[in-house]
Specification:
Order of helices and strands: EHEEHHEEE
Number of helices: 3
CATH class: Mainly Beta
CATH topology: Ribosomal Protein L25, Chain P
CATH architecture: Beta Barrel
Strand order of the largest sheet: 1-3-2-6-5-4
Structural class: alpha/beta
Number of domains: 1
CATH superfamily: Ribosomal Protein L25, Chain P
Largest sheet: 6 strands, mixed, barrel
Helix content: 10-25%
């Protein structure tokens, strides 16, 4: 099982996401039934290493945000067209 440490994202939009990516961070969001979407910030390098394993896409992941554990699965990943980087990840909350 993967445990991913994240932090809440306070700013939104294209400019904010670009600044995060320049700082080697990865914007992401957690969707779920009966909950509001939670935008988060992940470490680009750690996620790049984790996503190389097939279990990253199949297993339930644990995201730790401010001491709270959230069980999620990967729903969608956006990749950069020619760089070896991720642009954005969508997670679905497991309830």
């Amino acid at each position: 099982m993967f445990i991913i440490h994240a932090e809440n994202r306070k700013t939104y939009g294209t400019g904010s996401s670009r600044r995060l990516r320049k700082a080697d961070k990865l914007p992401a969001i957690i969707y779920g039934k009966h909950t509001t979407p939670s935008p988060i910030i992940l470490n680009q390098e750690l996620i790049m290493n984790m996503q190389l394993r097939i279990d990253f896409y199949k297993d339930t992941l644990t995201i730790m945000i401010e001491g709270t554990a959230i069980q999620v699965k990967v729903h969608a990943i956006q990749r950069h067209p020619f760089k070896d980087k991720l642009q954005h990840i969508d997670f679905i909350r497991i309830e």
